[in-house]
Amino acid sequence: QGYDFGLIGLGVMGRNFILNVADNGFKAFGYDLDPEKVKALQEEGGDLDRVNATDNLKTFITALEQPRKIMLLVPAGKIVDNVIEDLLPHIDQGDLIIDGGNSLFTDTDTRESYLREKGIHFFGAGVSGGAKGARKGPSIMPGGSREAYQEVKPIFEAVAAKYKGEPCVAYLGPKSAGNYVKMVHNGIEYGLMQLTSEIYDLLRKAGDMTNEEMHRLFDTWNKGRLQSFLVEITADILSKDDEHGPGQLVDKILDKAKQKGTGKWTSQNAMDLGIPVPSIDIAVSMREISALKTDRIKAEKLYGRPLPGKLDKAELEKMAEEALYFSFVITYAQGLHQLAEASEEYGYDLELGTIAKIWRAGCIIRAALLADIARAYQNDPGLSNLLLDASFASDIKDTLSSVRSLVAYGASHGIPLPGLSNSLTYFDAYTSGRLPLNLIQAQRDYFGSHTYERTDKEGIFHTEWED
Ligand code: 6PG
Question: Which SMART domains match (predicted)?
């Protein structure tokens, strides 16, 4: 009997994912050009009848049960196309190729239609949860043909993380729906990470808190409504001692954050769709500003830094919890709004409640909050923005004064809190029945005869502004 599942790319993610498949009772076969990686998997898997691997493509293809289910866990970009071209002469109509990487959704669309013409099913399936998630249960976001999904559904449901017994995977929609949802997941991830870093900065600068104190605070928060993977790992990070000297490792890490592009793609595409996601945009910009280390040091010498005034610690802790909750909600709200628009624009037919559900465990943005978000969309699948949900509205109202105080504190003491302030600004603008953009319309009409509408009459108007 052949193997149920094939996996190409036996790096850390691939090796962990295939072992997870095998642990769940499916026979799995891996392929990698590097014989060392093949050997490592064979050794770790133990029983070759359960999990095996090869560096020979033909051996790999013939080992698989038909229709073949072949997952790619290789770096996004040209490599995916190369692997597809290598596979094509050997596979058969009806076989299924699943790209588990962070591929750009437009690339997935191109690949899907190219392969559909050849009778091959192609899936873009976002996989979140890092190496540990791949091994113990990731959140999986598949998109492609609904019928073909049935072939792989039992395997994905078995290997995915479970939230109260429910697998964190679901068929999301046609074409690139899976990669798109994973892209926005990552945009939200960027936003939440930026916000967490700002709160950490406030606690140490305004509250003089030590890493140990912050560790305890994040740990406490992780038992409340802020319970989430990112808050949990922040608590861990803050208590990690530096092996090379006194103190904690976090203080020795260079303050330049790298990026592989998914956050930027989220922002770029949000602009294309005309959906505001400023909490995500600024998180991308902050990684870019962080890269300008040499200039930042010069500029600090030139301009100096204002001295932070101190805040009462107990009060600061309370305000910080509220501000983090507020801005997390706003960031999810923006990402979900983008998904709602993309669903219309690209015909994905996404169910936002289902997406929130499969994000409740396994993925990087998993959080207690997502159970409430899932409920909000289940109560009203057509909810245009999470901020319009009554139960979120009441929590948001309770946190607002803390957010305002902290953003004002940051502004007057020179502590950059762009994620918090963009979240607050988004909220203030979104909840303003009237914005000053009437003036912009007047200016546009003044210099370019671009016309305007009126509040008191129907129609399109133009005025000769200069007498
Ligand atoms: C996940 C992550 C993962 C990605 C990291 C790094 O969901 O498991 O999103 O897919 O590798 O987020 O992304 P950056 O290098 O862009 O920070």
Answer: 6PGD (SM01350)
CA 367 to ligand 1 center in whole angstroms: 17
* pLDDT tens per residue across span 36-80: 999 999 999 999 999 999 999 999 999 999 999 999 999 999 999
- Which residues does residue 141 pair with via DSSP β-bridges, in sequence order? 126
Nearest to 194 by CA among 323, 50, 387: 323
Over the stretch 72-131, which tens digit does the pLDDT of each residue have? Answer: 999 999 999 999 999 999 999 999 999 999 999 999 999 999 999 999 999 999 999 999
The CATH number covering residue 118 comes to: 3.40.50.720
Classify residue 309 by burial, with Cβ atoms within 10 Å: 0-12, 13-18, 19+: exposed
As a whole number of angstroms, the distance between CA 225 and CA 181 comes to 24
pLDDT, tens only, 199-245: 999 999 999 999 999 999 999 999 999 999 999 999 999 999 999 99
Q: Known catalytic residues?
A: 182, 189
Find, among 3, 138, 143, the residue nearest to 69 by Cα.
3
Contact call for residues 368 and 228 (beta carbons, < 8 A): yes
- Rounded to an integer, what distance in angstroms lies between the CA atom of residue 84 and that of residue 117? 14
User: Are 98 and 189 found together in one domain?
Assistant: no
* CB of 364 shorter than 6 A to ligand 1: yes
Atom 14 of ligand 1, residue of closest alpha carbon = 259
CB 463 within 8 Å of CB 456: no
Domain membership of residue 142 as a residue range: 5-175
Specify whether 157 is located in the same domain as 25. Answer: yes
The position carrying tokens 């019928």 is: 147
